[in-house]
Amino acid sequence: MSKHLKTKAPDLKTAIFLFFDPLILALVINMSIEQPIQHFLSFCLDERKEKVDLGNLIEELDRLVVATYLPEFEFDENEYPEPPDNEHLNIRETISERFPDLGFYCTVDCEPESIGDTNVVTGDAIDDLADIIGDLMNVQWYLENTTLSNAMWHFEFSYRTHWGFHLRELQRFLHIRWW
What global pTM score does this model have? Predict the structure, then answer.
């Protein structure tokens, strides 16, 4: 009997870790934030592309979230100018044409500590995507005009404080609509 047949197969959790860990490690080591940002902006803003399947948008949003888990960076204490206005209305117009199936959706507004005070509110998928794109355009500007550390800080900070919320709300809406 071969040695391989005598060994015990790993449990499912270990097998998944062994399979994905090297892939995730390679992705994190080899990826800079510039690549996922540029890819996402190109995907969303390229007006020459055909109408987009919302399933592709779900995948692109997932890939963008993975990019937020990059290796640590050192905080750059230098002062830099702010990026120029990225013309939110023009971004909205482009997105509306590229993603005509996006629109308003219902969501909830509540504080985790006060579930009884939950309100149903209207979300706007076009605005969510425009906010994500606007923040990523700012990070792209920091990449081109400041340091990588400064750009990475803005990428992480804006994800944690602004566009990450829009991304999660948009993902939820798309998931419900898609599936």
Answer: 0.79
**Cα–Cα distance measured from residue 5 to residue 162, given in angstroms and rounded to the nearest whole number:** 52
CA distances from residue 139 to 11, 96, 177 in whole angstroms, order as listed: 41, 23, 30
H or E, element range at 122: strand 119-124
Residue 126 contacts residue 99 (beta carbons within 8 Å): yes
Q: With 0-12 CB in 10 A as exposed, 13-18 as middle and 19+ as buried, what is 98?
A: buried
* Pairs from 120-123 (Cβ < 8 Å, separation ≥ 24): 123/169, 123/173
Token digits of residue 40: 């996402």
pLDDT tens across 75-95, in order? 889 999 999 998 999 999 999
